[in-house]
Amino acid sequence: MNAISHDAAGGATGPPGPASSNAAADRLRPSPGPETPHLQLGTAFKRAMVAVRRLRGRETHRPAQISYAQYGLLFSLAGMYELSARDLAEHADLMPATVTQMLESLETQGLVTRIRSDQDRRVVLSSLTERGEQLVAARHAQMEPRWRAALEEFDDAELVVAARVLDRLADYFDALLDDDAPLTEAAAQPIAPG
User: What strands, in cross-sheet order, belong to the sheet with 112-116?
Assistant: First the structure.
């Protein structure tokens, strides 16, 4: 996995705080004892999701700064010609209305350009400006060493297995969305006890 996909999907933007300062993170840490690998994975996955939500919750609304979610949109546009707000919302895991507001702000800052589609005038397509591309490249250069340092103790084979596990978890959650039967409270959390 490269730093661009990492940053767009959950890269850290600042130095991590002390682990003991967050009660929720402490509660989600694996407890000592004979846990199965499935439970250890579930607990670790929940911790990662909590960390991402915490990062996303630390949004800044100061016009001079780019928020984590806005960086996510910019990284989603990197290497693409043009994307609609709906496509960006799906890629960045945001609501289309939220994406539209963020794109307006990014356009005002000169990072994104938006034009109406020739095929469907109702669709507005967004792409990075040269300044937006420079910002994404600078962010990538900043995050890549941190991403590699976080994973340096794992060899390539372990990282490939980790990627396969995460892909399988994504499939698992997508299948839950497609399941017609309503989930009970207990069935909604099969990978790790809360």
Answer: 83-84, 124-128, 112-116
Instruction: Tell me the residue type at 138.
Output: A
Q: Is the dihedral of CA 5, 74, 134, 12 positive or negative?
A: negative
Residue linked to tokens 């794109």? 103
Span 31-42, pLDDT tens digits = 555 589 989 999
User: Quick one: tokens of 11?
Assistant: 């890269």
d(CA 103, CA 112): 7
> Which residue's structure tokens are 């350009």?
113
pLDDT recorded at residue 144: 94
Give the pLDDT of residue 80. Answer: 81
Token duo for residue 164: 């396969």
pLDDT computed for residue 33 by the predictor:
54
